[in-house]
Design a protein that fits this description.
By secondary structure, the protein is α+β, with helices and mostly antiparallel strands. The chain has five helices and five strands. Strands 1-2-3-5-4 form a five-stranded antiparallel β-sheet.
Length: 133
């Protein structure tokens, strides 16, 4: 690479040249009286590990809502990439329920939805979030 090419390359913002870093956490929970508490502790620990703890209170509340409404065996999956936090809660109950059960999720997340899975359904939501520098 010659000096001219190097100067041109050095003008590209670092945000465009550094690779995206994705982080994922996933846990299987058995439905019980403490499932929501367990999910909140796992979520809090994960967000602290990802240096997102200060921004995670709304995210934690919404995770609790999804886990509380889940039935049977639960899979909690958290994902972070490029300023977007995503949570998905899968269970083995058939598709059902509606926006009334997930009022907080519909009001506080930027987007949410549900999909059928081979075992039941998955409900997910996303929140934009910025890490501390």
């Amino acid at each position: 690479m010659n000096a001219r090419q190097w100067r041109w390359l050095s003008r590209i913002p670092r945000s465009l040249t550094k690779p995206a870093i994705a982080r994922t956490g996933s846990w299987r929970l058995t439905r019980s009286a403490i499932s929501a508490d367990t999910a909140l502790h796992l979520t809090r620990d994960c967000l602290l590990d990802w240096k997102l703890g200060a921004h995670g209170r709304v995210f934690e509340v919404l995770v609790g809502e999804l886990v509380t409404n889940a039935r049977g065996t639960i899979r909690l999956t958290l994902f972070y990439e490029e300023g977007l936090l995503r949570c998905a809660v899968e269970d083995d109950a058939p598709q059902g329920g509606g926006e009334q059960e997930l009022y907080l999720v519909s009001q506080l997340s930027c987007c949410w939805g549900s999909t059928c899975t081979p075992a039941g359904k998955a409900i997910w939501f996303e929140l934009p979030i910025q890490p501390h520098s």
